[in-house]
């Protein structure tokens, strides 16, 4: 789905798709880090 949008919109669509993917990666990393912190606090 992201690839199709990137190809359809050209360079701008591709950059937008990359930024969205990067944003999702950062949010996932923060959530994972947050969960690790909670487990450490619970011990």
From TrEMBL:
KW Transferase (keyword) present: yes
Q: What keywords appear on the UniProt entry? A: Transferase
Molecular function in Gene Ontology: transferase activity
Superkingdom of the source?
Bacteria
Kindly provide the name given to this protein in its UniProt entry: Glycosyltransferase family 2 protein
Q: Which organism is it from?
A: Bacteroides salyersiae
